[in-house]
Amino acid sequence: MISLAGRDILHSWGKFVFTGMGLGLLIGITLSMAGIYRGMVDDAKVLLDNSGADLWVVQKDTLGPYAEPSSIYDDIWRGIRGMPGVYQAANITYLTMQVSKEGGDVRVMVAGITPGGPGTPGWPPYLVAGRQITRSHYEAVADIASGLKLGERIRLRRHHYTVVGLTRRMVSSNGDPMVFIPLKDAQEEQFLKDNDAIRAQRRRTAENPAFNRPGVPGLLDAIIASQSTNPYVNAVLVRVKKGHDPEQVAEFIRRWKRLTVYTRSQMEEILVGKLIATAAKQIFMFLVILSLVSSAIVAFIIYTLTLGKIREIAVLKLIGTKNRTIIGLIMQQSIALGLIGFVVGKISATLLMAPIFPKYVLLEPLDSAIGFIAVVMICILSSIVAIRAALRVDPAEAIGG
Amino acid sequence: MSGKGIQIMGLRKRYGSGDTAVDALKKVDMRVAPGEVVGLIGPSGSGKTTLLKCLGAVIEPTAGKMILGDDVIYDDGWKVKDLRALRRDRIGFVFQAPYLIPFLDITDNVALLPMLAGIPNAEARNRARELFKALDVEHRAKAMPSQLSGGEQQRVAIARGLVNRPPVILADEPTAPLDSERALAVIRILNDMAKKFETAIIVVTHDEKIIPTFRRIYHIRDGVTYEEAGEGRDFE
Q: Does CATH place domain B33-47+82-229 in 3.40.50.720?
């Protein structure tokens, strides 16, 4: 038996291909939406992976340092370093800001890292060009996605920095590329006020009789000095010694330092379950809406194609064609349309949309497989309306009168 | 008359019931022998189409008897379970317009019927080509319907009606869209095919050009058939 659907598609292939391409772009957007969600989750995981930490020590009762502000003293790491099971402990600051560069500006997450070397928690684990930070001040390593180039000078708040190294896939949970600078510089960028504000603060302090008592020499200078120092960081990243249970080490720190400590799985839950939860829901809603729109379009197209063949269907029924052959004709065309759409959608999502999308789009094979099954199911369901119309066709319509 | 061909006795068809009931067919009696082509003529609303639908097993008559070949197919109720198979295997249709499937070439348009009946594709296509030879469209065997002239399309439609060797062919105004020459050519082909394949052919027509060619004519008026001898004018 010949394939009626196949012959019809070959006969009017232009109509099918162009319709399939239109549907394909819609499927491409749907796959890209799923890819954006996967990309957000991957960004979050990459941020945790690249930090090189097993534990995050943050301000008590906060979800810091990524999901909530967290501020702890920068000497706490010493005490943590001495606790059982702790292999390394390093301060870290994070500050999201806009950075000017040639041809515009870029939103980046500035990370302040402690002196050390590759392997120190918080340091970029690898570079794709240049070198790591070797000086104590005014050097930066940037993610290549920021568009910054080696040797480029950038201004972060009060200071200028030279980009000495480039890394890859070092992004915040929002997908912003990261820029690494020395911790002391980062503390200044984060907490130090501008000169006018400092002068105003000093004047206010000097005018306060409580801080500027004639009988206490040095008090005013001491207070001003304390106001000008910035002894805070956002978190301490901890690497646990081999063979130690991170949760057990975390419990030690919680008990003795009265700070909040998160393990890797807890931090992942915060990032994926809380920080990007709303965005994930939005994307899910978009996926549902796009699926419904795709269903409606497929249903409409197949219904229209079927109505265009009513006379042929009546003739087929009159000459004894079984209902299942007619159902097969419509359903196979619907599935073929979906297959064309899926191929076009997959190609457009992979080659067109993902590279130009400002956020990281991660197209996973499993999502494509699920998408493929969903497209086939949608096409089958969408053809039901057309099949009902075809089965209602009276073979007598082929006979005049 | 032998047991072949088609016989219709006292066929009735009523639409609706009660006060709104309409008797579309009141008393239809017809006999068409194998190899015979008869005309069925009647004014609009006389019941021609209803009769054709009943004969084609598309709608169910209300009462009467129909014998197709040696088998009683209707006797105050269908005696055949699978009406689609009956239409596919034992009744051929030729319509006013050819109604060929536009996405199949003409060979597959004709071969589709035997394929639907389970005959292998190659054999079904051979049957189609044999008919094309007889109908002089063999050279267009690979053409799509849209590439044929109206007369060629109608010949392909006749081939489709004949391909499963049905004992009866119902032709619904098969010459309506054709000029005199082509209309007569179609009727000649139907007569030739009727003889060649021992098929009974009923031609519903209004076409004054072809009415004189029938040897027997059934008139239908207000749902009742009347038989009369036709002129049986020679095509030559």
A: no
